[in-house]
Amino acid sequence: MMGVGKSTIGRLLSKSLEKPFEDLDERVEMRESLKIYEIFDKKGEAYFRSIEESECLKIIKDNGKIIALGGGTFINNNLREQIKKTCFSIWLDLAPDKIFERIKKNKNRPLLKNTDSKKDVENIYLNRKKIYALADYKLDCNLKKIEDISSEIEKIYENI
User: Rounded to an integer, what distance in angstroms lies between the CA atom of residue 17 and that of residue 154?
Assistant: First the structure.
């Protein structure tokens, strides 16, 4: 889900585990020379999702990386199956009201471009949580600091 800290936590893990880090959204932006919201505006969500799928499949072929997926990546059946075969996945679960507080001033979120509503964030969350629950692990991030979440993931990694 957007705004939960995937990229920040991924970078922390990359340093502590001494593994390369890939941010899928950043990779899509580099490929297209556009920000995500610009891709949505100029080429549409379907185009973005096709590029996202292509780039994600390339990233997961290289083993041993910490990967921050986009908020909607795991919704894609093909990507989810490939991720489950080749990686271990973690759902960073954060309450919709906390997500809204983190992202409300960021108008570069294409799915929330024309809203200031907690209800819209909640709807996206509710629509996605059954799919996110298919991840290998779920971490409740509501009362935790980024460093604590990163440490929990390190422990999971060390025990798989």
Answer: 8
Cα separation values, 81 from 53, 129, 147, 154, Å: 12, 17, 29, 23
The token pair that represents 87 in the structure block: 């990686």
| Tens-place pLDDT, residues 113-142 | 555 678 888 999 999 999 999 999 999 999
Q: Report how far residue 15's alpha carbon sits from residue 8's, in angstroms, rounded to the nearest whole number.
A: 11
Superfamily the domain 6-155 falls into: P-loop containing nucleotide triphosphate hydrolases (3.40.50.300)
| Domain ranges, ordered by start, for the chain | 6-155
* Of residues 1 and 66, more confidently modeled: 66
Contact yes or no for 92/6 (Cβ under 8 A): yes
